Amino acid sequence: MNPHRPPTRHLLVTLLLSVLVFTSFTEPGHSQIGIGVGGGRNNDGISIDPFQAFKTVKSLTEIKGEVTYEQEHYLGRAISANILNQYTVYNDSAANRYVALIGQTVAAHSDLPQTFGGYRFILLDSDEINALAAPGGIIFITRGMLRACKSEDQLAAVLAHEVAHVQNRHGFEIIKAARWKKFGANVALLAAAGTGGAGVAVGVDLLGDMAGDFVKQALTKGYGKKLEKQADIDALAILMRMGYEPHESAVLMQNMQERFVKGKKDFSKTHPKPKDRVKTIDKALRGEPDAEPVPQVRLARFDAALIRARAE
User: Fold this and answer.
1) Which of 132, 160, 263, 274 is the least buried, fewest Cβ under 10 Å from its Cβ?
2) Which pTM was predicted?
3) Is residue 268 part of a domain?
4) What is the Cα–Cα distance from 248 to 156, expressed in whole angstroms?
5) Is position 1 within any domain?
6) Residue 210's pLDDT is what?
């Protein structure tokens, strides 16, 4: 770990700069994230061009090297459509604006500060304690997870973990495990279907299947211990670049464990045990300065923005 931690003043400056950047984005809940296949719209105003779905899947099946960021973007939109078919977006403009602001600032300090379609941060009206990143930078966080966070630093830790999954392109590991090999057999089918109506239908169906596999794997098994550990460690680096208190990540894990209800659908099925993650975090932070109290200004900002969203 890099021992150099930016001063609090640096964090305040980056947040102010992010306000200027954030004003160029549409507000969550009224965004252009676009998810829904066939030009339809869901509760987040999202739509997908079926011809783009065909082009994306055809190129994904044909390539053997790196997936482009454009292909990743359209796959992420299809995955997000699947998620939003299962969850409802939480309608609180202040909370959405605040989470997006922190998220955009986190992303700006990551190793992948910009994706093809830009990062998006969406609150889900769910009591589950969870967060999920779709390829391309569409990141979801539940109200249950917000309740587990006790400070802005802990919220930033959650978002940094998800951004780390995006920057490392971990989503493709899930897809490779679930369906990637099967896609090779569909190249001939897509080629034969061409770019007409039949080809578009095949492309949309395959993209939907691919997205469905991703969501099923992500919500039931997760990325696996190795990738989750990498995301935890990379998230600490992001937090330290921003001037947030990295030790708050370990406190967050303890909060999540305290709120855990056995048998409930949440992080326990998709992530290592909190106590194991605390060990990873503590080991990564060896040699770093001791934990410092979270500044009151950040605590007050956190409470004010999320007072309704975090209500039980």
Assistant:
1) 263
2) 0.75
3) yes
4) 9
5) no
6) 67
